[in-house]
Write a structure and sequence with these properties.
There is one protein chain. The protein is mostly beta strands. The protein contains four helices and 45 strands.
Length: about 775
């Protein structure tokens, strides 16, 4: 039969299974830019209310609270166990497992009374409405007009797919636009599985809650903010964004801290949702000892990419002191980054920083205290098929008081172009690499270079599994040097310099494979012979070493053709590398890998320093052990042993574990005094003053351990800890402890930290 305007009544029961569900000039420039950006962003935010209201997007909860969009031309389908027709009162009562389908909405109840005269549906008992997105409204009693537009709901509970909830005793919708909840509360927190009636972590509870769809707001009257069920803040009147709104202007979570350096600090961020593609966050940090740190963060997303600009600054009003080298009443910085796509293959961008002085950002906690350099870059990159092009402009600045005169430099630019031929030549892969660089140091030294390199490699496997890999390389360099003096030899060089090298060699591997149970074992002896000229035609110390200083001889570079880390140094002479690799692969994905080997200078000039481990005819022994125990435990160990005495020259150990309640990472490094090369910078260890990039003159054995971890006490509470410790000097560099609460809708942590790092105006400090 027909219900209302074309509605059809079905009396058969539904099928089961329906589921519910640096200097004054720079400081002045930064100050001007800081003020302009901050003032401009704040002025623009005056358009906020209109723009923000128009740009809001509705999602799960919004589809419940707003009037549903239903095609009225579609019939209302109803089915139930029993149908009762009251023709005298023009009513139809459906009892038992009632299901009503209207558009994309489903109404389930124990009983539904359809009043033809009033055009209403009165549902009673276990009432549920399921919307097209899967959100569910549950209630004991609900009255709706037959087009689902307006209605009254008793004992309401709204749950979206992400478990955002509104619970109320009663609710009514008027004119399809405003929903009023009475004696209700709102929370994004999921209910406790063991005790669903337990109050959520936090909620806003109010006598009246009004949702206005057109304004995308929820207004709370005579309410309270409850924390773990305890009223914390009285809210006589409070308004927030509709929970479905993607972004909305307003205050963010404030932050509080206490430290020896800054005193008491309070940060109160305010977020401006200016548009759907740009925004601004204003976050002043009030300190009791070092003024007010004004901070702003502008973000802008465009069709081809995006960028952001972060500004920070402090104006000295005379109530506190700046460092002696700051000759201004302002300290500040600008940090910006961006990346844009020109097409699917080309992109450009930047990552830049400008600061009034070397310690500003570290002093105010904007960067790590152990940071030693600031690097800015502008780049263009292209990658397509077998081609790569990269052009980068660099500006480097050393931040430490013990400044390396070669650390402050400008690179304009450095260009890399790599190409791999599509078709093999003599059965092997041919590739071309080129590099161009123009560099100027702050001390007046200029270095320009052009490098062109061609490589050939072919892998051959015979019938018994032996792997032969012959290879060849030819390279030519042209340098232009101005007023360079080598710090070790005092050799002065200027003008054009050229050098070249031809390399030929082969690598041999023979993997042996065996299986025991579910474990596959692979043992692979490896031998490599590399022939080069005895020299490159010039004394390499005539060329400034800008990119080949970082040399750590370990198992990872044992079989590299050239073990230098950059272009400015080249290996010479004939060298052989020998070693072996063992791997045990388990069925569950776990594995154990061990590597050991040694390198030999057979003929020609050895370009390596004696302390590098490669400077003698027979190198030090290097080993590596790598263990991955499924997904919860990994261990890495690397060691270098003296070739003559087998003394331990360098050790690097690392471990990460996530086992049961323990989540931790640990690293240990030890370097012997005669393992630190005066010519090359090894991986730095930390003393009470951050290390520099200059050659080390420390004759002590350096030992350091770094660790952090969390111990879960319950599903939500955890103890936290961090440590950086100088074992050789028995001194703590930095440490911290804390406790954290974390659930699905709240993360709260209290930590205590101590730092013994000192540099310029950065002194030892405690904070929490």
């Amino acid at each position: 039969m027909m219900l209302g305007n074309g509605s059809i009544m079905r009396t058969r029961r539904a099928e089961p299974g329906l589921a519910a569900s640096k200097g004054l000039g720079l400081a002045a420039w930064i100050r001007a830019l800081f003020v302009c950006l901050l003032a401009g962003s704040l002025a623009f935010s005056t358009t906020l209310p209109a723009v923000a209201a128009q740009k809001q997007k509705q999602s799960d909860l919004g589809t419940i609270l707003k009037a549903p969009s239903v095609d009225k031309s579609e019939p209302m389908l109803l089915q139930a166990d029993e149908m009762i027709y009251d023709n005298e009162n023009n009513r139809v009562t459906a009892k038992g497992n009632v299901e009503i389908y209207y558009g994309n909405y489903t109404l389930l109840a124990d009983q539904v009374i359809y009043d033809r005269n009033a055009n209403t549906l009165a549902a009673q008992g276990n009432v549920r409405i399921k919307d097209p997105d899967g959100a569910i409204i549950t209630s004991n009693q609900m009255t709706l007009t037959d087009d689902f537009r307006d209605g009254f709901i008793d004992a309401l509970r709204v749950v979206t797919k992400d478990d955002t909830r509104i619970v109320a005793q009663t609710a009514s919708r008027e004119a399809g636009n405003v929903t009023v909840f009475h004696n209700g509360w709102f929370t994004p927190c999921k209910p406790c599985e063991e005790n669903p009636d337990k109050p959520p972590t936090w909620r806003i509870r109010a006598k009246t809650i009004i949702h206005r769809k057109d304004e995308a707001t929820i207004t709370y009257r005579n309410g309270f903010f409850d924390f773990f069920g305890v009223p914390i803040i009285w809210l006589p009147y409070f308004q927030s964004a509709d929970p479905t709104v993607k972004r909305k202007s307003g205050f963010l979570m404030p932050m509080y801290a206490q430290s020896d350096r800054l005193g008491t600090t309070v940060t109160v961020p305010y977020y401006f949702a200016l548009s759907d593609h740009y925004d601004f966050t204003f976050a002043p940090m009030y300190t009791s000892q070092q003024g007010v740190l004004w901070q702003g963060d502008w973000r802008h997303r465009l069709a081809s990419g995006g960028y952001r600009v972060e500004v920070a600054g402090v104006f000295n009003d005379g109530t506190f002191a700046f460092p002696k080298d700051v000759n201004s009443d302002f300290r500040g910085s600008v940090v910006t980054e961006g990346k844009f796509a020109l097409n699917p293959y080309w992109s450009w961008g930047w990552d830049a920083i400008a600061a009034s002085d070397d310690t500003f950002r570290r002093f105010y906690g904007l960067e790590s205290e152990i940071k030693t350099d600031q690097i800015s870059q502008l780049y263009l990159e292209g990658l397509h098929d077998r081609n790569y092009f990269g052009m980068k402009f660099y500006q480097t600045n050393n931040l430490l008081s013990s400044r390396d005169p070669l650390a402050d430099a400008t690179v304009y630019p450095i260009i890399d172009y790599d190409y791999i031929l599509k078709n093999p030549i003599i059965g092997g892969e041919v590739s071309f690499n080129s590099n161009v660089m123009a560099l100027s140091n702050a001390d007046g030294t200029d270095s320009n270079r052009l490098i062109v390199e061609a490589n050939w490699r072919r892998q051959m496997i015979d019938g018994i599994g032996e792997v032969f890999t012959p290879f060849a390389r030819i390279r030519g360099d042209l340098y232009g040097v101005n007023e360079f003096v080598d710090p070790e030899t005092d050799l002065n060089s200027s003008g054009a310099l050229g050098r070249g090298v031809a390399v030929g060699g082969a690598e041999y591997r023979y993997p042996f494979i065996a299986t025991t149970g579910s474990v596959a074992h692979v043992f692979e002896p490896i031998g490599q012979i590399i022939g080069r000229p005895d020299s490159v035609g010039i004394d390499q110390s005539e060329i400034p070493n800008e990119d080949a200083k970082s040399l750590v001889f370990d198992d990872t570079i044992l079989f590299d053709i050239d073990k230098f880390s950059g272009y400015d140094r080249i290996e010479t002479g004939t060298r052989a590398n020998v070693g072996g690799r063992y791997t045990a692969q388990f069925a569950n994905g776990a594995y154990i890998r061990a590597v050991a080997g040694e390198s030999y200078q057979l003929a020609g000039q050895n370009p390596f320093d004696i302390n590098s481990g490669l400077g003698t005819r027979s190198s030090d022994y290097v080993t590596g052990l790598y263990i991955q125990a499924a997904k919860y435990l990994s261990l890495v160990g690397q060691a270098r042993f003296n070739q003559d005495t087998f003394d331990l020259m360098r050790t690097d150990l690392g471990a990460t574990a996530n086992v049961g309640p323990v989540d931790m990472s640990l690293a240990y490094a030890e370097v012997a005094p005669d393992a630190v090369s005066p010519d090359f910078t090894t991986t730095s260890t930390t003393t009470t003053t951050p290390t520099t990039t200059t050659p080390s003159t420390n004759q002590q054995r350096q030992q350091e351990i770094v660790g952090k971890g969390a111990l879960s006490l319950t599903d939500t509470w955890a103890l936290l800890g961090t440590l950086r410790y100088d074992l050789e000097n028995a001194q703590t560099i930095s440490d911290g402890v804390g406790i954290r609460y974390e659930d699905d809708c709240l993360t709260l942590a209290v930590t205590y930290e101590q730092s013994n790092i000192q540099d310029q105006d950065i002194l030892t400090s405690e904070s929490w």
